[in-house]
Every structure is written in structure tokens, then in C-alpha cells.
Amino acid sequence: MPPPLPAIEPAPVDVTGQERSVRQLVTSVAGRLGSESEAKWIVAHAVGVSAGAVFAVFDEPVSVAAAEAVQEMTERRLAGEPLQYVLGVWSFRELEVRTDARALVPRPETEQVVEVALAELQRRSGEAGTGPVRDVVAVDLGTGSGVIALSLALEGPPGLEVWATDVSTAALELARSNLGSFVAAHRSAGTVQMVEGPWFEALPPRLAGQVDLVVSNPPYVSVAEWSVLDPVVRDHEPRSALVPGPSGREALESLVDDAGGWLAAGGSLVLELAPHQAPALAERAGRAGYVDVEVRADLSGRDRILVARRPR
């Protein structure tokens, strides 16, 4: 997540028709935003290149249309809107997905959740070779923009069947849009079904006891924490995807309590959580009968991912 913007207000980007280069536009936007990195993202998006390739076109002229697009995006960013929403697209692992205020911004911590989930799927896929032949099934609860489900389908074992649920009609519309682009680009990937409804209630009953992986990045911010969140998050990302209730643990506790009835023997539950929630949730998973309960750290070394398995 980019840091909060400093309160600076230089002159707006000039789009009056005076020819300017990509380099000049990046310099102008960087002065307004106080961030050269964000300026490169915005200008690159407007001129149709990747942020990493913007250096290759630094000395090329910018059209009036592109400069106008840069000005509009710069004003939105100055108003506090997340960069990911301003651009409308964002990279997540091997995906590029549409992003807007219907769902949370895809974050690096969630990429690590996917990494752990893929390892659990790989373990289950290997075990499936010694038992009855069936497809491996994964469920992504509260899918948001769909990045977890689509990443599992792309990077998971062959024949993977993925189900993604969300109670938000708006979020599911965004996820289905990303699914459409995904299918067009990756026809050989696993299948993904997206269904509307709260948590497990949206799933077909036939999946009960047949799921190899339940994974979720649920809301886990408390009401008190939400009130002091960075305004970039609090004022723009959907509150329902951040705050499940007063304590912030409501959704996590529900998922731990209910997943056992859906997981196959030996199946895994993988949940993203806040570091301070990890001890209580790990203890709850142990009391609920899960085995091999552990908490994995994110890239910054903070407890972030609960892993628990149903006994065999």
C-alpha cells in the first residue's frame, strides 16, 4: 500500500497542447504527488507501457489525450484514492486484474497466503495419487476481486476445481469480470466457479466433506482499528471487506468453526489474519479438533497465515 500523500499542491499538469516528453510528465507528476514511483506508474499506464518499461520511452512525446488521462489520475490520487484503484488494474503474482472500490486492493500479504495454499494443494494432489481418483477441490471464501481463486486455478495442480464465494454482489461482479479475462488468457488452467452468498452457505451441499483446501482473506479489522486506519484505506476500500464486527475476529472464528464440516480428511484450512490474532485463532483451531496447527509469517516476519488440517 503506498504511503499517505504529503499535503503539497504544485500547479496542475499542463495539457494545453504544448509538446512534452514522458520524462517531463513524470517529473511534473512526481512533484505533485511527492512520489516518483507513483508518477511512473500513472504516466506509464496513460501512455500504454508497463511501469518497468517507462524508461525506454522517456524521451518520446506525450499526446494531449494521454496527458489529460495523467491529470485525471493525478487528481484522484491527490484526493486519497488508492493507486490501484486509480490505475484500474494491478498485478498479483502471475495475474493482472481489474481493481476498483468494489473489492479490497490486492496486497503482498495475500500473495503469501496463496503461496501457502498452493503448497497445501500440492501436498493433497500428491496424496490423491495413492487413493481413489478424483479432482482436487479448493474453496476461496470472500473472494473479493478473485485474485486468490484465479491464482490457485493458474498455479495449482492439474484438474483443480476451484469454488469462489462472496456475499457482495458488487465484488462478485468484479471477480467475474476478472474470471472472464482469465479464461480468455489461460484456457488450460483449472476451472473456477463463482457463487454469491455468505461463506460456506453459497457452496453446493455435495462439496461437504470433499474439499481439500479452504482458503480465505476475510475481514479481520476491529471497529476500533478501523477508526484509526490510514484514510487511503478507510475512506476508499469497502468497509464490509475490512470489518466483520467489534472484535475483528468474528469472521475468522466462524471459518475455523465451520470449515471442518466441509474439509475432506487431511484437508487444509488457510486463513489470513492480523499478527495479534494469531495465538487465539491457533488455540481455537486446536480446540476445534484440527491437527498440525501452525502460524506462518509474512515477508516482513509478522504472524499472518493460520494453517490447520482436518485429521485423517
Write up what this structure looks like.
By secondary structure, the chain is an alpha/beta fold. It has 2 domains: 1-79, no CATH class; 103-309, Rossmann fold (3-Layer(aba) Sandwich). The chain contains 11 helices and 9 strands. The protein has helices at 22-33, 36-47, 64-78, 83-87, 108-128, 147-155, 169-185, 223-227, 231-234, 250-259, 278-287, and strands at 89-92, 95-98, 137-141, 161-166, 191-196, 211-216, 263-272, 291-297, 303-309. A 7-stranded mixed sheet has the order 5-4-3-6-7-9-8, with helices on both faces. α1 runs parallel beside α3 (64-78), α2 (36-47) crosses α3 (64-78) and α5 (108-128) crosses α6. It is globular and about 65 Å long. The two termini are 40 Å apart. The relative contact order is 0.11.
Which secondary structure elements does this structure contain, and how are they paired or packed?
Layout: H1 22-33, H2 36-47, H3 64-78, H4 83-87, E1 89-92, E2 95-98, H5 108-128, E3 137-141, H6 147-155, E4 161-166, H7 169-185, E5 191-196, E6 211-216, H8 223-227, H9 231-234, H10 250-259, E7 263-272, H11 278-287, E8 291-297, E9 303-309
Parallel strand pairs: 3-4, 3-6, 4-5, 6-7
Antiparallel strand pairs: 1-2, 7-9, 8-9
Helix pairs in contact: 1-2, 1-3, 2-3, 5-6
